[in-house]
């Protein structure tokens, strides 16, 4: 506890120095507003870490974090905007108490989110004012040491003293309002591993490897079948603000039954919306135009074919979905998906894969020059056609090595260890 108290006090000092730089450098009030951390976080933090009533005590910390983030957005013209941004991007690390079972890596993720802005500060002031450089070094070290503290004392999550005093919300922080209703459970489905999972997976995408014969047996669906940092709020089931999001499972205990939304396949203006499709293995969009886009959201265990030439296609939060399309002149994006297959029959210049686990991309002979951009994704494979009509499967690298060659950073793909 003494280590944690020391870290919080150092955070206060860092914010205080930011205020001092603001006063001397013409920044005025923006930096002073981050004093919300200095004013409230210490008592709230000690209360949270010593209490078993975690959920009810998260609201004050959430308020402090939101105030810091909101103030940063209101002061984009401040000469210390990069300083404010570094604080804003990293302060959610204080919510590690809600991040089980890996709170240490979460603190590191929030620290990394701030590095973009601290590097800008170093670039701007390295040759001008060493005080800013010293501030960056001191501020970054706070999160480094917090990560070490969490790893040593709370490796898999917050642990409680069996003999310590029972804290209440009145101890250093105002009593928060009752928490909102819990979120609906996230339907993670069954694992794709194992005999049963492999059988279902193969059966689902059997048709996607037929190439041009994919259209056989598909039925047309008419247009009239219509219907993005704060981990503390996440633990309460509240709305999530913008900014980096932790890789943490949403709480499911005592949750109400999930609400089933009606399936959608319709043209809304220039956008084809395909939403909430479950087990629909014959979805077809055929009456397309070059200016149109396709947005596919929360479609599971389904197959979709897009005929003709279209502007772009997006797969968002889809699971075990097969996509076959003719030509895309812009980009095909795969975001927050799991176990999806994408096959291009014609041409596409770019395919983007982001935050996706399991993605197979089947290229045609005309699309071999396609650029595939990936980030925060795993189990990605590109299948390239051979002369005999078969495909060669090539994995997309997930691990990289970066070295300094004396003038720049050089990054190369490496084999996955283990």
Automatic annotation (TrEMBL):
Keywords assigned by UniProt, alphabetized: Cell membrane, Membrane
Membrane topology recorded in Swiss-Prot or TrEMBL: Peripheral membrane protein
Locations listed in the record: Cell membrane
GO cellular component: cytoplasm; plasma membrane
Keyword Repeat part of the UniProt annotation: no
SMART domains: CARP
Biased composition (Pro residues): 174-186
Magnesium keyword on record: no
Positions of region (Disordered): 160-201
InterPro entries for this protein: Adenylate_cyclase-assoc_CAP, Adenylate_cyclase-assoc_CAP_C, Adenylate_cyclase-assoc_CAP_N, C-CAP_CF_C-like, CAP/MinC_C, CAP_C_sf, CAP_CS_N, CAP_N
Any one GO MF annotation of this record: adenylate cyclase binding
Domain (C-CAP/cofactor C-like) ranges: 262-396
Superkingdom as given in the UniProt entry: Eukaryota
GO BP: any one term: cell morphogenesis
PANTHER family referenced in this protein's UniProt entry, alphabetically: ADENYLYL CYCLASE-ASSOCIATED PROTEIN
Family: Belongs to the CAP family.
Protein name: Adenylyl cyclase-associated protein
Biological classification of the source: Eukaryota, Metazoa, Chordata, Craniata, Vertebrata
């Amino acid at each position: 506890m003494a280590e944690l108290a020391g870290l919080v006090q150092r955070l206060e000092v860092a914010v205080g120095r930011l205020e001092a730089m603001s006063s001397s450098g013409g920044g005025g009030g923006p930096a002073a507003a981050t004093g919300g951390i200095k004013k409230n976080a210490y008592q709230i933090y000690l209360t949270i870490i010593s209490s078993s009533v975690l959920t009810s005590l998260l609201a004050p910390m959430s308020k402090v974090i939101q105030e810091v983030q909101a103030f940063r957005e209101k002061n984009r013209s401040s000469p210390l905007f990069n300083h404010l941004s570094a604080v804003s991007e990293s302060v959610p690390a204080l919510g590690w108490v809600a991040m089980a079972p890996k709170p240490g890596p979460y603190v590191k993720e929030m620290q990394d989110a701030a590095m973009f802005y601290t590097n800008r500060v170093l670039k701007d002031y390295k040759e001008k004012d060493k005080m800013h450089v010293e501030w960056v070094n001191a501020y970054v070290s706070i999160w480094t040491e917090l990560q070490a503290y969490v790893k040593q004392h709370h490796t898999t999550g917050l642990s409680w003293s069996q003999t310590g005093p029972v804290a209440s919300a009145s101890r250093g922080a105002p009593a928060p309002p009752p928490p909102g209703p819990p979120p609906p459970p996230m339907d993670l489905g069954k694992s794709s591993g194992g005999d049963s999972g492999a059988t279902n997976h193969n059966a689902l995408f059997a048709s996607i490897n037929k190439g041009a014969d994919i259209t056989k047996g598909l039925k047309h669906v008419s247009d009239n079948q219509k219907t993005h940092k704060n981990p503390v709020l996440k633990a309460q089931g509240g709305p999530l603000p913008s900014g980096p999001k932790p890789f943490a499972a949403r709480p499911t205990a005592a949750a109400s039954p999930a609400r089933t939304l009606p399936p959608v396949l319709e043209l809304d203006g220039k956008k084809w919306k395909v939403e909430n499709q479950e087990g629909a293995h014959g979805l077809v969009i055929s009456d397309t135009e070059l200016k149109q886009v396709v947005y596919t959201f929360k479609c599971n265990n389904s197959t979709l074919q897009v005929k003709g030439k279209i502007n772009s296609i997006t797969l968002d939060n889809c699971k075990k979905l097969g996509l076959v399309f003719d030509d895309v002149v812009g980009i095909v994006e795969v975001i927050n998906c799991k176990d999806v297959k994408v096959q291009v029959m014609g041409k596409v210049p770019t395919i983007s894969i982001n935050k996706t686990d399991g993605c197979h991309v089947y290229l045609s002979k005309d699309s071999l020059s396609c650029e595939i951009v990936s980030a925060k994704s795993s189990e990605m494979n590109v299948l390239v056609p051979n002369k005999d009509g078969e495909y060669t499967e090539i994995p997309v690298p997930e691990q990289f090595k970066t070295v300094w060659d004396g003038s720049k950073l050089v990054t190369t793909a490496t084999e996955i260890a283990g």
